[in-house]
From TrEMBL:
This is argininosuccinate lyase. It comes from the Bacteria. Coiled coil: none annotated. It comes from Alteromonas australica. GO terms for cellular component: cytosol. It is an enzyme of class 4 (lyase). InterPro entries: Arg_succ_lyase_C, Argininosuccinate_lyase, L-Aspartase-like. The keyword Amino-acid biosynthesis applies. Keywords: Amino-acid biosynthesis, Arginine biosynthesis, Lyase.
Length: 104
């Protein structure tokens, strides 16, 4: 968990959040990149930046962004075959356990 949180992987979620607010993808990606640079400059994680800093970069960012920036949010959004969500991984593990039981 600690390693995943250090890599700004939630920048992708920020870009997706912005697209959901009507921002074109390319612009959302650019904004997310500027937010990452701001976090690096301040020596903190994206989710630790104050709302005023985020809104100085884009007025499309509102206080509802903070849950989106949590690591668990991004992981659980990937609820597809081969995805990283808890539900998907649990299902895959149970399927493999069944396969092992069948093999004896």
């Amino acid at each position: 968990r600690e390693a995943a949180a250090q890599g700004f992987s939630n920048a992708t979620e920020l870009a997706d959040y912005l697209v959901g607010k009507g921002v074109p993808f390319r612009t959302g990606h650019d904004i997310a990149g500027r937010v990452v640079l701001q976090a690096i400059d301040k020596g903190c994680a994206i989710e630790d930046l104050p709302l005023s800093d985020l809104q100085a970069i884009s007025d499309k960012i509102e206080d509802d962004v903070y849950p989106v920036l949590q690591l668990e949010y991004g992981v659980n959004q990937r609820n597809i075959l081969g995805g990283t969500s808890k539900e998907t991984v649990t299902k895959a593990l149970y399927q493999e356990l069944e396969n092992l039981d069948k093999q004896g």
